[in-house]
Specification:
The chain is mostly helical. It is built from 20 helices and no strands. It has helices at 3-15, 19-36, 39-56, 59-75, 82-95, 99-107, 121-134, 138-154, 158-170, 177-187, 190-204, 207-219, 223-239, 243-252, 254-259, 271-276, 279-288, 293-300, 304-318, 323-329. Helix 3 (39-56) packs parallel to helix 5 (82-95), helix 9 packs antiparallel against helix 10 and helix 17 (279-288) crosses helix 19 (304-318). The radius of gyration is 20 Å and the shape is globular.
């Protein structure tokens, strides 16, 4: 297959959320480029393969491929892919629980939200959302995801818009169901429909739609989304006393979870944090992993004493007594 056609095929599957097919094409393109001895093309295919792996939550593979691509773009970046690679690495390192490295990569991303770069800017905002989340700044993360959705709509990228709307929910915000459902009806793709189904489950705190979405995500190779939806569905079933269904969902999502084992997201956070704490206590605990009580108070508009009270109650519920134990509990 001609290289340009192969590239278009990969990007089309990636844009449609079909990571299984996109991954097959990316691997084929990479092998062909290596065999042809074309370094610039090898870097490009490493970048595309890294994007697929990052979306799937395969962080080790994503880091290796994107790192190879960045090195190649240092020598030849004719198409200015390096900054997009940096944005992807920001998200990957944030998901891996390294906020400082994530912020460093994000600082390398240039451009603006309008003008010729507006097509890529939603991805930069989404990377910023996950970097904010890695620092425990949940409200900032949700706001960035919503900005990404608006930028994607302005750029005519409905699939990216739908993914960003769902990311706002994944990050702990409220899902804009009306807008997400409209996009799913308009697109009619399995990925968009799965996003809408998962959004419905989050909005209604209903394990049924989340469990069905988890299966749909897994069929598309969306391992991270499948693992998250499965974990959330299992928690909701367990709370409702439906322990048999909770066990089945957890068993079904074991495969996707094992393939993205190093990913750290709010929906995959330790069950004790998710279930035992109030929303405010969770927010304070996530921030406490990296920030002082004074910083948290300033960020949330609270008194330092109030922050410490929230923290004390959370520590008591979780059976811990320090920020180091918070970081350990969160796998950071």
């Amino acid at each position: 297959m001609d290289a340009e056609i192969l590239e278009a095929d990969c990007l089309a599957h990636l844009a449609a959320g079909d990571l299984r097919r996109a991954g097959v094409v990316a691997e084929r393109g990479y092998r062909q480029a290596v065999a042809a001895g074309a370094p610039a093309t090898v870097s490009g295919w490493a970048f595309f393969g890294g994007l697929v792996a990052a979306a799937a939550g395969h962080l080790e593979a994503a880091g290796a491929l994107l790192g190879e691509a960045v090195d190649g773009f240092e020598r030849d970046d004719t198409f200015r892919f390096r900054r997009h690679c940096a944005a992807a690495l920001a998200a990957v390192t944030a998901l891996g629980g390294d906020p400082d490295e994530a912020a460093r990569w994000l600082s390398e991303v240039d451009g603006a939200g309008t003008g010729p770069d507006r097509v890529s800017w939603p991805w930069r905002e989404l990377a910023g959302a996950w970097v904010a989340m890695s620092r425990g700044a949940q409200a900032d993360a949700v706001a960035a995801a919503r900005r990404a959705a608006d930028l994607a709509r302005a750029a005519g990228l409905p699939t990216v818009e739908a993914a960003a709307l769902y990311d706002a929910g994944r990050l702990g915000g409220r899902v804009d169901r009306k807008r997400l459902d409209a996009l799913a009806a308009r697109l009619g793709t399995p990925f968009a429909e799965a996003l809408a189904l998962a959004g419905q489950g989050l909005d209604r705190s209903d394990g049924g739609p989340l469990a069905r979405a988890a299966e749909a995500f897994e069929r598309l190779g969306q391992d991270l989304l499948a693992a998250e939806a499965g974990a959330a569905a299992a928690r909701l079933f367990r709370r409702a006393g439906r322990r048999g269904q909770a066990h089945l969902v957890r068993e079904r999502s074991a495969g996707p979870r094992s393939r993205c084992a190093s990913a750290r997201t709010p929906m995959l956070v330790n069950d004790e944090v998710a279930e035992l704490l109030t929303a405010r206590e969770r927010e304070v605990v996530l921030l406490a992993a990296h920030h002082s009580s004074r910083h948290i108070a300033q960020r949330l508009g609270l008194e330092v004493k109030t922050v410490n009270n929230h923290l004390a109650r959370a520590y008591a519920k979780l059976g811990i007594s320090s920020r180091a134990e918070v970081r350990a509990l969160l796998g950071q």
